[in-house]
Amino acid sequence: MKQQQLIEQFYATHRLFLEYVNSLSPEAFMHTKSGKWNAGQQLSHIYLCLQPIAKALVSKDFLREKFGTLNRPLMDEAHVITRYKEALANGGKAPERFVPGAFNSEERDKATAETEQLLTGIGQLLQDYTEEELDTLVMPHPLLGPLSIREMMYLMTYHATHHQLQTEANLKS
Fold it and tell me: Which of 168, 160, 151 is nearest to 13 (CA)?
């Protein structure tokens, strides 16, 4: 997938997630069962996961110096998603820094606006990367290890869908 399509797909899946959680009534937005995250916590988690990506993308030099370049063949989108699902199935969980705290429905508008700002910023930052840089510069992922920027964007694109599906399943239970 080329750069522009990657950015558009990344933004589109997050937009769908935001539209979904914002369409929920306050009761549904706060619904939780069996310790599962409510929609607000899912939204907060998405934001927490996007923050370090936005921060890292500001500097190609930082990425190159801190994490190096990819030293294996590039994974396609399906492979990245499969590896993520396997990691979760094997007990993988979000590290503490990505676990959302309590969230109330009054915070929804602010959290949505802040997430949209992050998404826009990430899209703008990605415009400055060449196709080669997307494939070679590395970012760490807590479950999957070093990923190229392109692979990270594949994962983060799916990540929004994953958390929307979790929210939907929580509401059906």
Answer: 160
